[in-house]
Amino acid sequence: MSASGGTKAIIAALSANLAIAVSKFVAAVFTGSSSMLAEGIHSVADSGNQLLLLLGGKRAQRAGDKKHPFGYGRERYFYAFVVAVVLFTIGALFSIYEGVHKIADPHQVESPIWAFAVLIFAIVAESFSFRTAIKESNPLRGDQSWFAFIRRSKSPELPVILLEDLGALLGLIFALFGVAMAVVTGDGVWDGIGTLMIGVLLAVIAVVLAIETKSLLVGEGATPEVEEQIRVALEGSPEVARVIHMRTMHLGPEELLVAAKIAVEHDDTAGEVARGIDEAERRIREAVPIARVIYLEPDLDRMRTGASG
Known about the structure:
The protein is mainly alpha-helical. It folds into two domains: about 5-220, Up-down Bundle (Alpha-lytic protease prodomain-like), CATH 1.20.1510.10; about 225-309, Alpha-Beta Plaits, CATH 3.30.70.1350. It has ten helices and three strands; from the N terminus they run H-H-H-H-H-H-H-H-E-E-H-E-H. Strand 2, helix 9 and strand 3 form a beta-alpha-beta unit. The longest helix is centred in the middle third of the chain and has 31 residues, at about 190-220. About 45% of the residues are buried. One of its GO terms (cellular component) is membrane. Pfam families: Cation_efflux (PF01545), ZT_dimer (PF16916). This is Cation diffusion facilitator family transporter.
């Protein structure tokens, strides 16, 4: 993937989750805590998700062929959508099941010192991963709010990692709450409640990711700001009287398709129209470098023709 920041954030999250998963499972064995077991499964699911994002980025780099003439850029959207499905099916559903089971049949948390030590270690590691994701996202986010960045980003990796890391940190806090309350009150039901909270949290994040990545997978156009840049570039060409209509669609995070019908003067020669189209394409690519595939259809400027007649 061209966004090296996205790759860096994925690797940071993967490294943190692999170390955390091992520590959580060790703690789950010693404590019998369902919250720790749910968090261990959560970390395994996150690790798998990050591997899927890396795989999607690698496969998206393949050149176009006869079957896929526009290339494979959307592979990144597909694998991001799979991440949302995996997060829900493995992380959320397992945690909800474990939480309900533990509430119905509570057990005392044993050796809680293991749980507290692992949770503190995990919070520190996840904070490092989350900080890396924030740092790498800021240049792309600009002056947008975080909510707007997640909603409008055409590159799926950073929003996915941001939400996963946020979910991981909140999940650790929920697990810490459940284990602490179970130890203080001596009632294992609190451990189940913490586990159930983790499951609901993961389900919410998975639904948000699924909605956003589905929109990208189906085919999103350029942002209004980018479309305005393209329009200005087109109408800045001497041979283009105006833009009649325009359509855009992302073939991938860094590849945009532009199709527009442009008005030309009725007395322009074919050669002048051809040169005008070439110049218009050059101006578009200069203004919006990700505009890789451009189709321009010339038409007579009927507004002016009608006015003169």
